[in-house]
């Protein structure tokens, strides 16, 4: 039958990651010489934010003192590049 693979939510996340990655590569070619790259955290977190409504989740923003406590910028990314979700 049709659509017997991953659920549509998983596919939506995957396609959004791929699309944002292609836009990033196209708009910033000098930052990406030919090689293999991991999706930058800020793009991965953007995809996650775009899907929150479909999960019924409301995201709150960090207060400056919270961001300072965990050592990140208020606007993210919230994990270092070496961190794998």
Our count of domains comes out at 1
The low-pLDDT segments are none
Q: Report the radius of gyration as a whole number of Å.
A: 16 Å
Gap from first CA to last CA: 32 Å
Characterize the largest beta sheet: strand count, sense, and whether it forms a barrel: none
Strand content: under 5%
Quick tags:
mainly alpha, 85 residues, 0% strand, 48% helix
Tell me what you see in this structure.
- This protein has 85 residues and is mainly alpha-helical.
- It has one domain (8-70).
- Helix 1 packs across helix 2.
- The chain is flat.
- It has 4 helices and no strands.
- Helix content is 48%, strand content 0%.
How would you concisely characterize the structure shown here?
This protein is mainly alpha-helical and 85 residues long.
Layout of helices and strands, plus pairs?
Elements (H helix, E strand, L loop, with lengths): L7 H20 L13 H10 L1 H4 L8 H7 L15
Helix pairs in contact: 1-2
């Amino acid at each position: 039958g049709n659509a017997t693979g991953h659920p549509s939510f998983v596919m939506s996340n995957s396609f959004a990651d791929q699309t944002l990655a292609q836009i990033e590569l196209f708009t910033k070619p000098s930052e990406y010489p030919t090689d293999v790259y991991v999706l930058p955290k800020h793009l991965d977190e953007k995809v996650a934010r775009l899907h929150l409504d479909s999960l019924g989740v409301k995201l709150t923003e960090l207060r400056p003192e919270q961001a300072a406590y965990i050592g990140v910028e208020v606007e993210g990314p919230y994990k270092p590049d070496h961190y794998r979700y």
